[in-house]
From TrEMBL:
Residues 24-285 form the ABC transmembrane type-1 domain. This is ABC transporter ATP-binding protein. The lineage of its organism: Bacteria, Bacillati, Actinomycetota, Actinomycetes, Kitasatosporales. Keywords: ATP-binding, Membrane, Nucleotide-binding, Transmembrane, Transmembrane helix. It is a multi-pass membrane protein.
Length: 660
């Protein structure tokens, strides 16, 4: 449908310029004369001149052939001028359309991209006009020449030539479709890599490697399949060239005795070979390569540039991405930037501007929980042991939750699953009642990883990165005050100061990322050791800012004991077991938590602890965290106190690894 729209417009365009077309035809006729004389003069030079012992006549015919080349070259020069008369109006027309569209959509980036495509369209169109015109007129000259030399020559050359051209014509459409698919897949991959490559560090920091790798794989696969399919069909192009251009040479040589017996002179035979090798073969070669590659490129570009016609679309076909799920579709080229930016640390939610103005009301039964994990099991590979197994938990809105546990136990994994960056093997995750993964859930959370994402640009741009519009200065300064960014902001020269990420300390970068999260509209804030480079006081201030931020549920992968002590609830991850409750409550009933906080683990008789990262207390004294199996193999059932968050049994860990 879209293709026929472009064709219709193309025909209209050419019809309106019929005078230019007639001029082109007239100048191209000189090329026909040149093609005709090339073989004819050679044949006459041999038959009437050199073979008849009349060298002067032979030289005379050769001179005539050379003269024809000069005349033909002049004609070709005029043809180029004529082609400009056809191509430049096309370019002007496309540029007009593109500028109107750019102004209408106020999109400078799109405008420069489209202008570049206009230049491609113009060059490709010029090339197409030249090669297809050249083939028609050269073939006409050569065929007339063959007929005038001796009609049997036409019998030998014309059928394979016609068969080759017919094969090419039949393959043209499928070939163009495959070429187009390949181009689109190639561009999709390039656009994807263009977004992903500059953000590799942040992808790693955000724990999104697997997701990005899967998306990249899909695009590489799509391009590979498109290239393979194109290569298969390209064989037909080569075959048409062999049949139409090279086979006639073999036929002329093989049938030479028969031709000579049927009145064809040696000169005519040489002339026929000259027609085929010097005119027909090169013209066919140009046509096959020119139309095959440039034709489909032109079709793609014109389709993108053309304004919609009768509600028709103007976008090129989307590349095939394996496993065409909804998710894959949302990761199509146009979505790449958005998806990547969200994976790198947050969400551009589009909530009401005055979101911070309304204090959250106490949760009621009608208010969905901020976070609900139901029988959640996650493993990194299909055969790997689960990192999280059968975890069920509900966290009410407005809760400050600290997640603690030894290094490598799965805290970051849990936040990544909650953020929708990793897909669970079993079970479900809901954020504010919305299923994860999903666009709505994504709009409800912001995840700040340990390695803060800061880019070159103004401080205001950096902290406002998750907001759809620039942030009023008063609001920005208030956020900076709350999180503890003010001193850095003043030192840098205010909100409009340029930020050089390399010149900032890791802690300073974290302050910027934290302020960005604070200013986002996301009600659920996930801090995965996002304050680890701050001192205890700065960490406390930043956490307090989120706790006091209206309507916020804060989930902190705790780096220090103080962080857990301040939280409403603590989730202790301990491999096969989890514990959940208040700090004081857990000190009594969770040996691991006691060890994490106090450095002692009771009762005796447990298996040796595995080494783990220190969990520092607020006073800077390190206590060693460890993970081990309880000697009795019991699993912990959390008894969260009633209130905002939990009732007994809200958090359950029903099965244990290894069936204990
Ligand atoms: N991309 C991955 N592929 C395979 N295994 C992974 C991957 N990322 C993490 N793991 C493994 O999953 C387990 C949990 O890792 P995770 O990073 O979630 O732990 P953590 O508790 O956050 O650790 P830390 O406190 O050191 O950051 C570890 O055994 C880790 O080796």
């Amino acid at each position: 449908m879209r293709g026929s729209g472009v064709h219709r417009r193309g025909l209209r365009f050419v019809r309106r310029r019929w005078r230019v077309v007639v001029r082109l035809v007239l100048w191209s006729a000189l090329e026909t004369a040149q093609a005709f004389l090339l073989g004819y003069a050679l044949a006459r030079a041999l038959d009437d001149g050199f073979l008849a012992g009349r060298t002067d006549v032979g030289l005379g015919w050769l001179g005539a052939g050379a003269g024809a080349v000069l005349v033909g070259a002049y004609g070709t020069g005029r043809v180029y001028a004529g082609v400009a008369g056809l191509v430049e109006p096309l370019r002007d027309r496309l540029v007009r359309g593109v500028v109107e569209r750019g102004v209408r959509e106020a999109d400078g980036g799109a405008l420069s991209g489209f202008t570049q495509q206009v230049e491609i369209a113009r060059d490709t169109f010029a090339g197409l006009v030249l090669v297809s015109r050249s083939f028609v007129f050269t073939a006409a000259g050569a065929l007339i020449g063959l007929f005038s030399l001796a009609p049997p020559l036409l019998l030998v050359v014309a059928p394979p030539l016609a068969a080759g051209v017919a094969l090419f014509a039949a393959a043209l459409r499928p070939l163009a479709r495959r070429q187009e698919r390949f181009l689109v897949a190639d561009e999709a991959l390039a656009a994807h890599l263009d977004t992903v490559c500059p953000g590799l560090r942040d992808i790693t920091a955000g724990g999104a490697e697997e997701r990005i790798a899967t998306a990249t794989d899909a695009r590489v696969d799509a391009e590979f399949r498109a290239a393979r399919s194109l290569a298969r069909w390209s064989v037909l192009r080569v075959a048409s060239l062999a049949i139409g251009g090279q086979f006639p040479i073999v036929l002329l040589l093989a049938t030479a005795p028969w031709l000579l017996d049927h009145g064809v002179t040696p000169g005519a035979l040489v002339g026929a070979l000259a027609y085929v090798t010097q005119s027909l073969l090169p013209a066919l070669q140009n046509l096959v390569h020119g139309l095959g590659a440039s034709g489909s490129r032109l079709a793609v570009v014109l389709r993108r540039l053309a304004p919609p016609e009768e509600g028709g679309e103007t976008k090129a076909a989307a590349p095939e991405v394996p496993g065409g799920t909804e998710k894959a579709a949302s990761e199509a080229p146009g979505d790449t930037v958005k998806a990547a930016s969200e994976e790198l640390g947050g969400t551009k939610a589009t909530g009401p501007e005055d979101r911070h103005g309304s204090k959250a009301t106490a949760p009621s039964s009608a208010t969905p929980d901020a976070l609900t994990l139901t029988s959640l099991t996650f493993a990194y590979g299909p055969t790997s042991a689960p990192v999280i197994e059968d975890l069920t938990v509900r966290v009410a809105q407005g809760t400050h939750l600290a997640v603690v546990g030894p290094s490598g136990i799965g805290k970051s994994t849990l936040t990544a699953v909650v953020a929708g960056l990793l897909d669970p093997r079993h079970g479900t995750v809901h954020l504010c009642g919305h299923p994860v993964p999903g666009d709505t859930a994504r709009a409800h959370r912001v995840l700040i990883p340990q390695e803060a994402y800061v880019f070159r640009g103004s401080l205001a741009e950096n902290v406002g990165d998750l907001r759809p519009k620039p942030i009023p200065e008063r609001e920005l300064r208030a956020a900076a005050d709350a999180v503890g960014l003010t001193a850095l902001m003043e030192r840098l020269g205010g909100p409009e100061a340029e930020v050089d990420p390399g010149a900032l300390s890791a802690g300073e970068r974290q302050l910027i990322a934290l302020t960005r999260a604070y200013l986002s509209y996301a009600p659920v804030v996930l801090l995965d050791e996002a304050t680890c480079h701050l001192d205890a006081e700065a960490e406390e201030r930043a956490e307090r800012a989120f706790v006091e931020r209206p309507g916020t549920t804060l989930v902190v992968v705790a780096h220090r004991v103080g962080s857990a002590r301040r939280a409403d609830r603590v989730l202790v991850m301990d491999g096969r077991r989890v514990a959940y409750g208040h700090h004081d409550d857990l000190l009594e009933r969770s040996p691991l938590y006691r060890e994490l906080v106090l450095g002692t683990r009771e009762p005796a008789g447990q298996q040796p602890l595995q080494p783990a990262l220190p969990l520092r207390d607020t006073d800077g004294v390190d206590s060693v965290a460890g993970a081990g199996l309880a000697g009795d193999g019991r699993h912990v059932v959390a008894h969260g106190p009633v209130g905002q968050v939990q009732a007994p049994g809200d958090l359950r860990h029903r099965r244990t690894l290894g069936g204990q």
